[in-house]
Amino acid sequence: MRSWSIPAGKILGVEIRLHLSFLFVLLFVGVNQQAARAIPSPWRGAALAAIIFASIVLHELTYILLESRSGVTPRAIVLLPVCGVRIFDETQPPLPVNWKRTNAIAAMGPLANFALAGIAAVFLGVAVPQSHPWADPYLSPANLPHSIIWANLWLGLFNLLPAYPLDGGRVLRAIFGRSMDPLRATRRAVSIGRGFGIAFILAGWWNMPQTTWFFVVGVLLFIAAQMEDRSAVFHSVLETVHLEDIMLTDFATLSPADTLEDALEKAVHCLQDDFPVIRSGDMVGVVSRQKILQTLRTEGNGYVQAVMNRIFDVAQKTESLSSAFRKLSAQNLSIIPVVENQQLVGIVTLQNLMHSMALLAETRKLRKAALES
């Protein structure tokens, strides 16, 4: 998700990221201006994209305010021109879907957009009586006040569709969640969301250029559904995979009596960034390659004992990946020793954890595809 989005600030502690599909909207507006034989105005096109962006921010801000009361807010929201995709903290265990809470949140988002559209319509009607806010074209860089009304109306109406991750789709997922596990409920809702996306794409393709907006909306909805599907699989892996499935069992260790130069020599011949420090079979600390290098540069050679971190946590090999993430985040650690019967049997580093989760998610998708074929 981060590779296709850029940071756009924070709201109430939630990181707001702008999906690169907004550039596609700018390109689409420019093409439409040329097709209408209007003089292309990049500034007006950017202003129209900003109006759409602000409308979606308002929609998602309503969600953030409601969720903050329960203490469960997303870590980040990726904004697409049709909706927002919410990213939750990996360390946060998933909450059971609450039917009433989901309905309340799903209703308040569109209501906020309808309210803004109504306020803008009243203001425009008073300030410019001859503006004709209900006339076509509804969204146009040539009439930005007019576009404020219709951007919010369309966004509110669009989010009522039962297409995940739209608000109507979240209600649908809550319905599915009453009779199946969260992953299956999410993936079934995502499938319906993809279906709506394909339907919009076909409808737009059938009657171009009059219905080009349908094509654009369909593509964006399909992208949003794919992002939610990946997120659901990712969190499922966190909860169901154990550390013994991904821990490193072939790893290098250091001794407190090793010099930093000797430790760096060992680090050169392995792919580890973090090392357990062992004394007489007992783990007494951890040290990173970066810390070894930094100390050598600033203070010269010394012993591992002087630079190792004596604060660390251990995990059992039967613990889940989400448990490992919580331990890594709680003390800002980069390595977790895995023990069995008080014996060190493996290590989990942040680097191998991320790589393993990506591979496990892809493996599950391949197995699912093989079963369906």
Structure description:
- With 373 residues, the protein is α/β, with parallel strands linked by helices.
- It folds into two domains: 2-240, no CATH class; 244-359, CBS-domain (Roll), CATH 3.10.580.10.
- It contains twelve helices and nine strands.
- The strands form three sheets. The chain has a four-stranded mixed β-sheet with strand order 1-2-3-4, with helices on both faces. It has a three-stranded mixed β-sheet with strand order 7-8-9.
- Strand 3 and strand 4 form a beta hairpin.
- The longest helix is centred in the N-terminal third of the chain and has 29 residues, at 99-127.
- The mean pLDDT is 80.
Number of strands: 9
Give the end-to-end Cα distance, rounded to a whole number of Å: 28 Å
Radius of gyration: 26 Å
Mean pLDDT: 80
Helix content: 55-70%
Low-confidence stretches: none
The helix-strand sequence is EEHHEEHHHHHHEEHHEHEEH
| Main structural class | alpha/beta
| Shape assignment | elongated
Kindly report the spatial arrangement of strands forming the biggest sheet.
1-2-3-4
* Number of structurally distinct domains: 2
How much strand? Answer: 5-15%
Q: Please give the largest β-sheet.
A: 4 strands, mixed
